[in-house]
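Researcher: Here's the sequence for the chain we discussed earlier.
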Amino acid sequence: MSQQLNEELTLFRDTVVAFIENEVAPYYDEWEQNKIVPKAVWRKLGENGLLGCDLPEQYGGYGVDFRFNMLVIEELSRAGFMTLGGNIAVHSDICCHYLLNMGTEAQKQKYLPKMASGDIIGAICMSEPGAGSDLQGMKTTAVKQGDTWKLNGSKTFISNGQNGSLYIVAARTDLAERAAKGITLFLVDGDKKGFQRGKNLEKLGHHCGDTSELFFDDVELTDDDILGGLHQGFVGLMQELPRERLSLACAAVAHAEGALELAVEYVNERHAFGKPLANLQDIRFKLAEMYTMTETHRVLVEAYKLRIQEKALSAVDASMAKLTCTEIEGKVVDMALQMFGGYGYMKEYPISRFYADARVQRIYGGTSEIMKEIISRQVVQPS
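Model: Thanks. This is the structure I predict for it:
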């Protein structure tokens, strides 16, 4: 990394940290109780240049690289505000890049500048009540009738489902083909007739994240709303998944680092048997394990950030990163909570939110089991 780039990243991190301290930390508990982040926060994020940082300048970004986007997600995760980081990642690192890489010039001009400003919030709609990781089970359809398409079906577990104003929806457009060959992506504006937001789902963690059910009842679309070409949806999804999974890995490492920082602070302050907990060998050894896990995985994600910049990050690379980083995240956060004893189970202590928020990391974006399946095919071909 050049000295100039290193300095730019350091300055940008200072901007992100200041934003978190001033605009997130004082209000986050209220957002958690209300189970949503106000839309005004998204516009503040845009005003401070924290959305779609790596978009080209003509579309409202800085034209910088992937590492700037990850600084936003990582600092939020490290501070214990992972839900907001995750929702931003869906918007900036998934939706924006679907449009950037697959959209027409007209689509890019229409949406990307407003996504960078926070006036449009993006959501990606793949999962359905009966089809999560298995896209072959997708039931949502879009049928051509004259010059229009009629979109029908439902989606679930959709991040930014309530706040969203642009939905990238995967639908089957060729029912005679298996889903991998017959899926098309559509751009659906949130004010379309026939589109309805369902309830904001109750979750174990990520409480201020608006995760929703969505319903489509004869939503009228045109060919101009197709993203990436007819029947090309599956190809587009596969091309963009490595970036999504690496962003999840980066967030996982930062989240683990934040939990470790909380644990170190607590064991130095808390006394047992007349001495700080940190004096106990068992505690020190566990901290050594946690530090080793976070540091080795930090090296991994930093190396993979370079690979994605060089367009050399494979699906297997991303799956390995997502698998191992989210798994150690769970271990580190669990070990950290244990050091707090009974207080770790109390909501007033931030470590409890770290614990609740970490669990879904091994599920969304592809479960750990799906990641192992993808990786295994690199090692051995089943007969």
